[in-house]
Amino acid sequence: MCGIVCYIGEKSAKQILIEGLKQLEYRGYDSAGIAVHNGDRIEYCKAVGKITELEAKLNGRKMEGHTGIGHTRWATHGEPTEINAHPHMDQEKKLFVIHNGIIENYYNLKKKLEKDGVVFVSDTDTEVLAHMIARYFDGDLNKAVRTVMSEVEGTFGIAVIHQDAPGEIVIARRGSPLVIGVSDNGYFAASDVSAMVRYTKKVVHLKDNELATLTRDGFAISTAQAKRVERDTETVEWSAGDTDLNGFPHFMLKEIFEQPSTIENAIRGRLEPGEGVPKLGGIMPVWEKLKSCRHIVIVACGTSYYAGYVGRYCFEKLTEVDVEIELASEFRYRKFNFPPNTFIIALSQSGETADTLAAIKEARRKGASLLGIVNVVGSSIARETDAGVYNHAGPEIGVASTKIFTSQLTILTLIALLIGRHQTLPLTEGTEAIREIMALPDRVQRILAQANHIQAVAEKYHKYPNWLFIGRKFNYPIAMEGALKLKEVSYIHAEGYAAGEMKHGPIALINPDMPTVAIAPKDDMYDKMVNNIQEIKSRKGPVIAIITEGDERLKKIADDVIEVPPSLDFLYPVLTVIPCQLLAYYCADFLKRDIDKPRNLAKSVTVE
Ligand code: M6R
User: Fold this and answer.
1) Same structural domain for residues 395 and 487?
2) Measured from the CA of 601, which atom of ligand 1 is nearest?
3) Residue owning the nearest CA to atom 7 of ligand 1
4) DSSP letter string over 548-605?
5) pLDDT at 240 over 70
6) Final residue before a domain boundary, out of 407, 438, 469
7) Using omega within 30 degrees of 0 as the cis cutoff, is the peptide bond preceding 285 cis?
8) Domains in the chain: how many in total?
9) Range of 460's domain?
10) Deepest of 252, 461, 553, 602, by most Cβ within 10 A of its Cβ?
11) Residue whose CA is closest, atom 12 of ligand 1?
12) Residue ending a domain, choose from 187, 215, 240
């Protein structure tokens, strides 16, 4: 969603802001803008569309200055127009603010300001912040921001500069991430470390209801009650190269091909083959409670939700725990009766998904213990949970989540195996599981080696406007994830179904124009899947079957097959999802879609 980058230091701000905004492009946006303080006054520039449009408008403009703020906007209140783009400013054009999040009481605040004669120029909720902070400003920008924080409701990550406070940027957050970056030649602030990782890996995370003043000489963090906060810098693992394409045409393809190493990263140092038990240091703070836990609720959104769905089957297979899976966006509307010692597992790549955050806060209120499986270190969900496991998968830039999905599946399996081995799972099954988990990176590599074949299958089918994905048990969530992947990057309409549901409705859709991707590896659901495929073929529906290597039976029935190496049933999803990801990618490529930034989507959904 929206992105923030700020710089104050020895260097010229303009180019740093533009480079930072380019690193934030993957989050999804529809307009962008920057404002730079040149020592006397503030200059600004905004443009609708890509950062290149902003660069074109800036072409020839010097915009000198060492203090600046930049923003990419993903429209919520008001259309994506230049006037609605950030930064927003007060009537005198002295104060400039950029904002991620939503000001929920903006309407009432706006009415009050209008009564006092303030003329609004945009349709945004953000503009109220500009007018309010400007009104409270008496030379102390930090104090003015603090005062406004006490009056606004909703979520925000903001950065503010004022003409009469040169050499200062004030940032503040509530529910929307902000990170300070510390480098030898200046200080950064951004909604996402990728905006500054080229310049520094030393960061300090701002917590909710905190604000900070950045100057050329340092930064000072305080609470909304003006209490000084001391916090050490952390070093981020990501490097500048992680955000490069490295020869791939798109981040989505690069990230699909990174999966052997991201799965390796998810298991590195976490397996004890002889004992058949994983080692997960991150969950040790809650281990005494977790090992005897009998009830888990997994919460997540989108692709992370489907990973959680596979996780449910996995926990049921390996442990004695009852597991529920719930969409984080629906969690608050359910009435859960948590038995004692219930754990919530929140899955999130970004660690900032607003619905998932809200769900865990609600679960905490109801007395549950919280575990997080998160990729972004120091993110809000990582901080709000009692314990957890990081993916260590590096930044995921493509809006369509791929490498994090298989990493999440791997980590969920490790947690299930760890609990299972302390409950009733025998040693032989534990050691076998670990052996098979360790084989996953090579097996994924074997599937990736068939990319050309999968591309040819995509070429054959990419013009079909409607697709069906079916699977059972462990592969039912893969059917849903396969359909999501295809629709989000290619805009082809796709449905993911439990194959057992076919006769209850979807089979009515089957005809020669409706391809079905049938996920049918050789597990205990295989025979039933073969029956489903036969039923589709009897109605002349084209079938692309994802099968286990050497399955001659399905090779004869299906129109096209993609083979995956043999595996244990609960590990097949890590393999069967790879052909789905590649099919989605290549269909989108044939259809010339904007693969890494599909229309209307944002990488990190930080508003409800
Ligand atoms: O950062 P999160 O894992 O919490 O994000 C959840 C969803 O927004 C995300 O998986 C989304 O569905 C992706 N676009 C899927 O490719």
Assistant:
1) no
2) 14
3) 302
4) ETT-HHHHHHSSEEEEE----GGGHHHHHHHHHHHHHHHHHHHTT--TTS-TT--SS-
5) no
6) 438
7) no
8) 3
9) 449-595
10) 252
11) 302
12) 240
Band the pLDDT of 335: cuts 50, 70, 90. confident
Mark whether 219 and 257 lie in a shared domain: no
Q: Return the SS3 of 189.
A: strand
> What pLDDT, on the 0 to 100 scale, is given for residue 516?
98
pLDDT in tens, 346-390: 999 999 999 999 999 999 999 999 999 999 888 889 989 999 999
Catalytic residue numbers? 2, 603
SS3 323: strand
CB distance 604 to ligand 1 below 6 Å:
yes
Testing ligand 1's pocket by substitution, the residue of 252, 301, 331, 597 carrying the most ligand atoms inside 8 A of its CB is 301
**Do 268 and 230 sit in the same domain of this protein?**
no
CA distance 118 to 106: 14
Give 487-510 pLDDT, tens digit per residue: 999 999 999 999 999 999 999 999
Whether residue 484 lies inside any domain: the answer is: yes
Range list of H helices, 350-450: 354-365, 380-384, 403-422, 427-438, 440-448
Tokens at 605, concatenated: 């959904």
Ligand 1 atom nearest the C-alpha of 356 is 4
Same domain, 203 and 306: no
